[in-house]
Amino acid sequence: MKNKVLFILTAYMFVFLLGLNSCEKCGPFPENFKVAGFDFDNVSATFSETDEPKLAFSEISNDTILYNLFSVLIETKAEAIVHVDPTFNLINAAVACSPTIPRTDEKIDSILITTNQDFDETHQSGTNLHALFDIVVFDEANNIFNEKYTLINYIETKPFIPNNMFLILNSPPETSMHVEFTIHLFLDGIDIDFFEIKTKKVFIKIE
Q1: pTM (2 d.p.)
Q2: pLDDT digits (tens, 9 = 90+) for 106-126
């Protein structure tokens, strides 16, 4: 009987130390993040609406692009929020070494897009061009993997801030032109409630 008890205690200590060692190597993991800013760039993007939607993008060559390929890639810069539990047990150790996907509770309130010149007869310089853009969203924590929406419909859902998003132009300008866009992101954030993006000048062709 004593040998059996000794064996059980020895086995428990082995598992305890193994769990502790594993946790030291792979935990703790961030469960949440907060937005620290955004990176952005003009890119050429195509979206295939098939059974398995696919997004492909690349650099813009010579700052010239066909209108329906023009896109602004916006990538979220995340700052991890790590919650450290001062207590320890084997169950917590196992959970800590099985990380969840970090998420944020911060949301997008609205997006305003303007340009430095008249885009067409309906959309003058300084007016909101959000109706002229679709958006493709990647938000791993909320199981959104490169899904496409009209920008207006997407914003109406008051979405969580995703990992990245592509604003894709869906309508041509009145004539081929050099243009710069200004994108205002209004956020329900922790540290950031507003972020302004000024794109590089690009020549957009209508055909």
Answers
A1: 0.79
A2: 999 999 999 989 999 999 999
